[in-house]
Amino acid sequence: MNIQDKSQIESFTTNINNSQKVIIVPHNNPDGDALGSSLGLCNTLKNMGKDVTVISPNEFPDFLNWMHGVEDVLIYDKNIKKAKQLINDSELVVFVDFNALSRIKLMGQVFENDTTPRIMIDHHPYPEENTAPIQISVPEASSTCELLFHVLSEAGLKPYITKEAAECIYAGIMTDTGSLNYNSSRPETYLIVAELLRMGIDKEHIHHMIFHNNSFDRMRLLGHALGEKMERIPDQNAAFIALSQEELKRFNFKPGDTEGFVNQALWIEGVNLSAMFTEKKDIVKISFRSRGGFPANKFSETYFNGGGHFNAAGGESKLKLDETVKRFKEVLIEFCDANGFE
Ligand code: 5GP
Ligand code: MN
Fold it and tell me: How much distance in Å is there from the Cα of 121 to the middle of ligand 2?
């Protein structure tokens, strides 16, 4: 993996060596890569004898609750006072899997004028400067977990990566690469996976815990989404699913239940863009996945206050669900016409 500037790794190593109390923060609605890199790093640093806390902006999905150390993750929006105190007392803050303060929602305000040394480790393009003074930003990395493993190796900390930490790191690589199927996984990714396997991880078990451990309600919600709610937009080679609060409630929605639905609409022949709209209390959360040349991140940034990777991005809308879908259809025509897509 190409990290042009070795001095960032040196800053990382120096900061880790100089800090006893460390806080690690993933993005809002943490996914496998965000929580995997948080706990992969947390478990490694704890093994070095450090005092480490992962603070997640909000709740994480149940399919990640097997990770080692997950029971000690502090949920910011439920423990604001305690979280602020811990951040205040810390000597180092590490941000993983995001590159803009807006990605940690309300928690971002805590860091606007915070002087605690802060490091960002991330693989999304276009990092914002005020996210952290030290930025280890490698968009070529398949996942933050892959990048984290590389950074820990370069920093000489590999001996502290326990099997439990390795499991968390593998989970992030697996989820962000579509089980190593996307072209974001490169030869380096496989070399790292080989090392993780040598550390004793059980990849079949990890795959089972993440993908084959669904609640009955979640499987029924998937059936409803695919059978009743999926729509095609043939002229723009797109498909989408929109789910209302009422529908989510009907299937006893829990965080993470709609994870991966957006991929499934992309499995339709001829579909190059898939969108998933999920109605939340105040906003509509949107996920985009694309195939080939459609820049999902640019589309999301232009119209839905979002961003992400070229083929996997997200955003949000303050309009009502049906108005959001209507606007999506309109701006998709505009975007395709302007950029020569069909
Ligand atoms: P997902 O659709 O799984 O929520 O997110 C796909 C990708 O887009 C992830 O890399 C995620 O970090 C990014 N992403 C999701 N939502 C947002 C958003 O609201 N803003 C930005 N900038 N990126 C997002
Ligand atoms: Mn990621």
Answer: 10
